[in-house]
Design goal:
heterodimer, A: mainly alpha, Serine Threonine Protein Phosphatase 5, Tetratricopeptide repeat, 2 domains, 14 helices, 81% helix, B: mainly alpha
């Protein structure tokens, strides 16, 4: 019996050792980066009170990862994170050096290039150099319009003006963003691209508190492209559903219209994995509608009395 | 091992069962094999997102979850989810066989018969079909209870002051988990004599079910006390599983230790419960 237990323990240990040794994934780097992200988050909370050496230590740890695993797929993200540490330290020369090197190295990757440029705009913003900040924004929108970062930048410009406490410029930026997304929609785009552009256009309308247009645009994104699961991950579709719920119930108070959108979606994509969730939401929305009607009737009766 | 008179105090019997377990490691052996299989499953799931196991598991992870779960630290969330989802299967397929084997070992010791694990497992194999079905019935009953609990309007049952905000949600989740433990205790009590009736008295499934309830009626207080007392050990495990998310942002590997703790505690509870109940069953049989 003891022998058997010894053998079983040996099997467990053996399998653990073999699987650890044969593992060629980037698990170790992921773990190390996660631990470093926690350090980064800690210093990012209030960089002004963090001693400069602390930033250098963190940047050096990122450099150690880059040196140890130069060909790992996560290295571009590590380099960007290193630049972010220098940005927190307000060591702009190093930010420019890292980003320029990065742009040369990863010029073939539009999303990485857009992310690097956005980081660069952060450096100019921290230097309160508005013209250079805006020119970088413009460059991202022009050169990388359909990357996730490129799609986000038109809205980001509005946020930039809000940070500067210039609501009129922010409103103008929102109008520009809406125009930019509508222009993109006029191009020949894939279903996935159309979905994401519509999603951003919906966000612009939400920011403008144009709830009717926001509901229409998000509804269109969901109904026309949301069910093509080969292109759109369900987690993203779920985010759109949550946004629609918030807009329709809390802001626009049009549960009926939303129920119709969801019913259309369910009938268009009868096998979609989110349908059971949507059916529950539809039931809830109908209940809400009945409740609202009862409430309105009671208010009316009270007024009549 | 046997007293001449059936002692009624559950604590006395529990203590005697514990001594029996310690003095006869052969009873623990089947539980050690269950532990091995559970740890093997845990190990496979731990490495599921890494090469070479990701060749098989990656498509499943991407289909049923998302890309994030292929990476640290979300892999631990998936580990817990999949490991707990595997438990009903393990319960019906694996626990049924090895608990049956442990009960046969106790019967052999009680009858002063030699304990050869190979012949014990051979004997268990003869009863495996019945054991499998009885565990499946118990699991089905448990699922029904869980479904009933899920449909309860708990928000209306717990005072509103306890249900507000994030704290209220934590209270609700832990409350539901503890209610489910209560459901688990009820099902364990209801079917506890099934295994001894199947493998010691060699009854068929239907007769074993009737005998199970007859024995339960005769010793309801004792069984309830034994099962409730031993199941209390589950409370820390359940609270850790329910609130393990607090480790997620600090030390995600904690999930692994929580699951190891869960396996060990589960097997310890099962070993003590089934030894106690089998000893008591044999006493009842001896004393008519």
């Amino acid at each position: 019996m003891r022998k058997t237990l010894g053998i079983l323990s040996g099997i467990l240990i053996g399998i653990f050792v073999v699987l650890t040794l044969t593992d060629h994934s980037e698990y170790k780097i992921e773990k190390k980066l996660w631990q470093m992200q926690r350090q980064y988050d800690a210093v990012a909370q209030d960089p002004a009170v963090v001693p400069g050496k602390r930033f250098d230590d963190i940047a050096a740890q990122y450099q150690a990862i880059i040196d140890k695993y130069p060909s790992a797929s996560m290295i571009p993200k590590v380099r960007l994170q290193q630049a972010r540490v220098y940005l927190l330290k307000k060591d702009f020369q190093r930010v420019f050096r890292v980003i320029n090197g990065f742009l040369e190295r990863y010029s073939g990757d539009p999303e990485l290039s857009a992310q690097a440029l956005l980081l660069l705009s952060g450096a100019y913003e921290a230097q309160q150099d508005e013209s250079k900040t805006l020119s970088i924004f413009k460059r991202i929108v022009e050169e990388y319009p359909l990357t996730p970062t490129g799609l986000n930048v038109p809205l980001y410009i509005a946020e930039y003006y809000i940070r500067l406490n210039r609501p009129e410029d922010a409103a103008r930026a929102l109008n520009d963003a809406a125009l930019n997304y509508r222009n993109l929609l006029a191009r020949r785009l894939t279903s996935r691209e159309q979905f994401f552009v519509l999603r951003y256009l919906g966000l612009v309308y939400s920011a403008k508190q144009d709830w009717d247009s926001a509901l229409n645009v998000f509804g269109m994104a969901l109904q026309v492209y949301g069910g093509t699961k080969d292109y759109i991950p369900n987690t993203v579709v779920l985010q759109v559903i949550r946004t629609l719920n918030t807009i329709a119930v809390s802001e626009f108070k049009n549960a009926e219209k939303l129920a119709v959108i969801y019913e259309n979606f369910v009938s268009m994509y009868p096998r979609h994995p989110l349908n059971s969730h949507l059916k529950e939401v539809i039931a809830g929305l109908k209940q809400l509608k009945t409740g609202n009607q009862t409430g309105q009737r009671e208010d009316h009766d009270a007024d009549a009395l | 091992m046997m007293a001449r008179k059936i002692p009624r105090q559950p604590v006395v019997i529990l203590k005697s069962s514990w001594n029996t377990l310690i003095s006869h490691p052969a009873i623990i052996f089947p539980f050690c094999i269950v532990a091995f299989l559970q740890f093997l499953a845990l190990e496979v799931l731990f490495f599921a997102h890494r090469y070479p196991l990701n060749k098989f598991f990656a498509p499943l992870i991407l289909r049923f979850n998302s890309e994030a779960y292929m990476h640290y630290p979300y892999n631990f969330i998936l580990l817990v989810k999949w490991f707990l989802a595997l438990q009903p299967v393990m319960f019906v397929l694996v626990h049924s066989f090895f608990i049956g084997a442990a009960v046969i070992v106790i019967n052999h010791i009680n009858n002063d018969r030699p304990v050869h694990m190979r012949s014990i497992f051979r004997e268990t194999r003869r009863h495996y079909g019945k054991l499998f079905l009885s565990f499946a019935i118990a699991l089905g009953s448990l699922m029904l209870i869980f479904r009933g609990l899920d449909s309860l309007p708990l928000h209306n049952m717990i005072p509103a002051v306890l249900m507000k905000g994030a704290a209220g949600e934590i209270i609700r989740q832990n409350g539901v988990a503890l209610l489910k433990l209560l459901g688990n205790i009820v099902v364990t009590i209801l079917f506890i004599y099934m295994v001894p009736a199947l493998v010691v008295s060699e009854k068929n499934l239907f007769s074993a079910l009737i005998m199970n309830f007859k024995c339960l009626v005769r010793s309801a207080g004792f069984v309830i006390a034994v099962v409730v007392l031993t199941s209390l050990l589950y409370v820390p495990v359940i609270l850790l599983l329910q609130n393990g998310e607090i480790f997620q942002g600090v030390y995600p590997e904690a999930w692994m230790w929580i699951l190891i703790f869960y396996v060990l505690v589960t097997l310890m509870i099962e070993a003590v419960q089934y030894t106690t109940i089998t000893v008591y069953y044999l006493l009842m049989k001896d004393f008519g």
